[in-house]
Automatic annotation (TrEMBL):
PANTHER family named in the record: ACYL- ACYL-CARRIER-PROTEIN DESATURASE-RELATED, STEAROYL-[ACYL-CARRIER-PROTEIN] 9-DESATURASE 7, CHLOROPLASTIC
Protein name per UniProt: Stearoyl-[acyl-carrier-protein] 9-desaturase, chloroplastic-like
Binding site for Fe cation 2: 174, 227, 260, 263
Gene3D superfamilies the UniProt entry points to: Ribonucleotide Reductase, subunit A
Cofactor: Fe(2+); Fe cation
Lineage: Eukaryota, Viridiplantae, Streptophyta, Embryophyta, Tracheophyta
A single GO BP: fatty acid biosynthetic process
Pathway annotation: Lipid metabolism; fatty acid metabolism
Keywords: Chloroplast, Fatty acid biosynthesis, Fatty acid metabolism, Iron, Lipid biosynthesis, Lipid metabolism, Metal-binding, Oxidoreductase, Plastid, Transit peptide
Subunit structure: Homodimer.
SUPFAM superfamilies cross-referenced by the UniProt entry: Ferritin-like
Cellular compartment(s): Plastid, Chloroplast
Length: 394
């Protein structure tokens, strides 16, 4: 049964990250039109060393316990249908394949060339790439999140269930993403690694509650959404790197995007199976997740300086087209079509209402976003610690 720790506020139709202990105004900003405050207040880190933190109501174990059996009975199915989307380690790319080889005589020359190419890339692009890298580097948080899910968690740390094997191997594949971007960014000499490393430490310390309530229904809907979001975002940084003439960086972002696509395929297949077994429960979970809004995994990011760092990073990413409010609506629409939600039949009254809600949500989000864009004012510039305090247009 759900153990509700406190009153749960009703969500409104917007797609802001959940409220944190940062300013209420910042928390109320939508993802598509983040508040562009020039003020950056320093948090009281001495009293609150791991801030910012989630401040929304945290709900646990909302899935009826009998449904755990569904996931136990799907173990063989997962072995035959999900584990096949993993790549054997020997066939996987590794970060070193895309980086200068430190044992080669040409190492210094290769680094010099990498730095020459990086000189042509503007600061706002680096802000996006650093934000993406920081997001990837908080991987311990995402593995933890998967291991909160009832019926699929890795009970021992080396469990032999298909679900646990997937989670560990998925984590191992994902670990290459932050590693590659981190080493690349270090070699460019364009970014303040110490500030970035602090951001990563703060972010992992903050953790995150994506409001999946220990339910694999909610959890796998969340990961389906997020894998597609990262596929889009890394795909866009690849495209922009190419436009800036850095084909090697384009290749780096592109190869990461291709992993994300493979992971998206696996997670969306799990949810497809849940729609087949339990259409009512799954459509209710999808509507629930969308009402709560899909929070971005790094929404609690903080560098010790900027109280609204995530909003500022998101605004730059939106302006450059790396990840936008339109992408959010597009992902939702893609998933609704992928899972054939409109075609579901035999639903309960509540299920039908959830079906209507999710099937009409994407156009409503787009309309709200267009209106917000129309009202958007000139946003000014903001300094980012990640690039030595240089100012970037929001
Ligand atoms: Fe990733
Ligand atoms: Fe991913």
């Amino acid at each position: 049964m759900a153990s509700r720790i406190a009153f749960k506020p009703l969500g409104s139709l917007c797609f802001a990250p959940p409220r944190t202990n940062r300013s209420a105004a910042a928390a109320a900003a939508t993802f598509g039109s983040p508040r562009a405050s020039m003020a950056s207040t320093k948090l009281e880190t001495a009293k609150n060393p791991f801030s910012p933190r989630e401040v929304h109501v945290q709900v646990t174990h909302s899935m009826p316990p009998q449904k755990i059996e569904i996931f136990k009975s799907l173990d063989d199915w997962a072995e035959n249908n999900i584990l096949v989307h993993l790549k054997p380690v020997e066939k996987c790319w590794q970060p070193q394949d895309f980086l200068p080889d430190p044992s080669s005589d040409g190492f210094h020359e290769e680094v010099k060339e990498l730095r020459e190419r990086a000189k042509e890339i503007p600061d706002d692009y680096f802000v996006c790439l650093v934000g993406d890298m920081v997001t990837e580097e908080a991987l311990p948080t995402y593995q933890t999140m998967l291991n909160t899910l009832d019926g699929v968690r890795d009970e021992t740390g080396a469990s032999l269930t298909s679900w646990a094997i997937w989670t560990r191997a998925w984590t191992a594949e994902e670990n290459r993403h932050g590693d590659l971007l981190n080493k690349y960014l270090y070699l460019t000499g364009r970014v303040d690694m110490r500030q970035i490393e602090k951001t990563i430490q703060y972010l992992i310390g903050s953790g995150m509650d994506p409001r999946t309530e220990n339910s694999p229904y909610l959890g796998f809907i969340y990961t389906s959404f997020q894998e597609r979001a990262t596929f889009i975002s890394h795909g866009n940084t690849a495209r922009l790197a190419k436009e800036h003439g850095d084909l090697k960086l384009a290749q780096i972002c592109g190869i990461i995007a291709s992993d994300e696509k493979r992971h998206e395929t696996a997670y969306t297949k799990i949810v497809e199976k849940l729609f087949e077994i339990d259409p009512d429960g799954t459509v209710l979970a999808l509507a629930d997740m969308m009402k709560k809004k899909i929070s971005m995994p790094a929404h609690l990011m903080y560098d010790g300086h900027d109280d609204n760092l995530f909003e500022h990073f998101s605004t730059v990413a939106q302006r450059l087209g790396v990840y936008t409010a339109k992408d959010y609506a597009d992902i939702l629409e893609f998933l609704v079509v992928r899972w054939k939600v409109a075609d579901l039949t035999g639903l309960s009254g509540e299920g039908k209402r959830a079906q209507d809600y999710v099937c009409t949500l994407a156009p409503r989000i787009r309309r709200l976003e267009e209106r917000a864009q129309g009202r958007a004012k000139q946003k000014g510039t903001i300094p980012f610690s990640w690039i030595y305090g240089r100012e970037v247009q929001l």
